[in-house]
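All the exercises in this workshop are built on plain-text protein records. Instead of coordinates, the fold is spelled out as a row of discrete tokens. Once this layout is familiar, the rest of the handout is easier to follow. The record below serves as our worked example for the rest of this section.
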Amino acid sequence: MPLVVLLMSMTKMLKDLLERAAHWPQEVQDEAADSLQAIEQAYQGSYVLTAEDEKALEKSAEDVRERRFVSPKKLRTFFKTGRA
């Protein structure tokens, strides 16, 4: 689809955001693209897990089985400071 047609079908909010995003650092643009891809996949239907996803889920399941949870105090600290 030609770029002009794509731009015509976007909302003003999205167009404005993408124009600003063109000036973001490369790593921030990549993160934004990853977020948009995740939204697109959710919109389109089922998601196919990557090997990394499967490994992370298995680790999480193991943590639950072994009752490895973060303490409420550490969790509060994390959300107050934005870091672990």
